[in-house]
């Protein structure tokens, strides 16, 4: 039996309690189901459905549903399927979006009889939509972080992670091996000059950074810095080109063009001199 909305101060207090519980609910596996069930009860709605947009972008996935004949969570629908879901006289659709504005999904509410004041219903629905959006974004970010955390461990190349203020807070075993091959015990001692400044620049601009570093004249390391702006972090990968460059020079020598050492920090190649950005101060 459907309940009738309460009038007066008692109804207002109950509505405020619902709002507080909706906004204060902790994250968890049942959060989506709690949100749609509570919203359906408060708005006396026939159906409430919560969707997110899948990787295909033209497909919706049901996160939770409430009402007669509710669709099972996990079901996937095309946007054109929504028209036939509800045989109703009242409908309200609230888009879900992440903090940066990118669409995340939709909250759909349907009534057999249109509510007396759609503005009140919309206000509460937008609160639920905001809470659901935050949870979707949080779960996606956690998934991304887990994937990023797993990749560096198995990466054969040195991988390092910096906080937004340039502090080194993670490095994999390959970074330790590179440091030891250069006579250092810790990867922090083989970082390019002004790594902190580069990390901050990458985060401020959202653009990758690249440094070619010449060490002791016979080791060449290429450092690639990739900002993860949302996480206030920068990942760096190091690739050693020494073997490649040595082979290149050896092949040139066999062809009759020997390597010509130039001034400190320079390597002569036909037509132009290449200087390490760490020496010249250039950052690409």
Description:
- This protein is an alpha+beta fold.
- The protein has two domains: 8-146, GAF domain (Beta-Lactamase), CATH 3.30.450; 155-280, PAS domain (Beta-Lactamase, 2-Layer Sandwich), CATH 3.30.450.20.
- Helix content is 37%, strand content 27%.
- It has seven helices and twelve strands.
- It has helices spanning 8-24, 31-43, 118-154, 173-181, 195-205, 242-254, 277-280, and strands at 47-53, 59-66, 76-78, 90-97, 103-111, 159-163, 168-171, 209-215, 219-228, 233-240, 266-269, 272-275.
- The strands form three sheets. The protein has a five-stranded antiparallel β-sheet. Strands 7-6-10-9-8 form a five-stranded antiparallel β-sheet. A two-stranded antiparallel ribbon has the order 11-12.
- Helix 2 runs antiparallel to helix 3.
Q: Give me the side-by-side strand order of the main sheet.
A: 3-2-1-5-4
Q: What is the makeup of the main sheet?
A: 5 strands, antiparallel
Beta-strand content:
25-35%
CATH fold call of the largest domain? Beta-Lactamase
CATH architecture of the largest domain: 2-Layer Sandwich
Radius of gyration: 29 Å
Share of helix among residues? Answer: 25-40%
Helix-strand pattern: HHEEEEEHEEHHEEEHEEH
Number of strands: 12
Could you outline the blueprint of secondary structure elements for this entry?
Elements: H1 8-24, H2 31-43, E1 47-53, E2 59-66, E3 76-78, E4 90-97, E5 103-111, H3 118-154, E6 159-163, E7 168-171, H4 173-181, H5 195-205, E8 209-215, E9 219-228, E10 233-240, H6 242-254, E11 266-269, E12 272-275, H7 277-280
Antiparallel strand pairs: 1-2, 1-5, 2-3, 4-5, 6-7, 6-10, 8-9, 9-10, 11-12
Helix pairs in contact: 2-3
């Amino acid at each position: 039996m459907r309940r009738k909305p309460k009038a007066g101060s008692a109804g207002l207090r109950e509505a405020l309690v619902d709002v507080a519980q909706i906004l204060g609910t902790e994250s968890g596996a049942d959060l989506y189901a709690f949100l749609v069930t509570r919203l359906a009860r408060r708005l006396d709605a026939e159906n409430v459905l919560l969707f997110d947009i899948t990787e295909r972008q033209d497909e919706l996935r049901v996160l939770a549903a409430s009402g007669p004949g509710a669709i099972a969570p996990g079901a996937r629908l095309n946007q054109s399927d929504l028209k036939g879901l509800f045989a109703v006289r009242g409908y309200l659709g609230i888009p879900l979006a992440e903090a940066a504005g990118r669409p995340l999904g939709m909250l759909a509410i349907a009534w057999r009889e249109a509510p007396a004041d759609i503005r009140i219903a919309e206000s509460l629905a937008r609160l639920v939509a905001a809470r659901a959006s935050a949870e979707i974004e949080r779960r996606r970010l956690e998934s991304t972080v887990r994937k990023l955390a797993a990749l560096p461990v198995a990466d054969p190349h040195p991988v390092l992670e910096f906080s937004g203020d340039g502090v080194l807070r993670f490095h994999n075993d390959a970074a330790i091996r590179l440091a030891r091959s250069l006579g250092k015990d810790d990867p922090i001692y083989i970082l390019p000059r002004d790594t902190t400044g580069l990390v901050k620049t990458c985060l401020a601009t959202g653009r990758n950074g690249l440094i070619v570093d010449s060490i002791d004249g016979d080791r060449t390391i290429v450092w690639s810095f990739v900002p993860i702006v949302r996480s206030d972090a920068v990942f760096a990968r190091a690739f050693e080109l020494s073997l490649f460059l040595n082979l290149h020079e050896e092949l040139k020598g066999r062809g009759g063009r020997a390597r010509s050492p130039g001034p400190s920090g320079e390597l002569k190649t036909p037509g132009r001199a290449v200087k390490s950005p760490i020496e010249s101060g250039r950052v690409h």
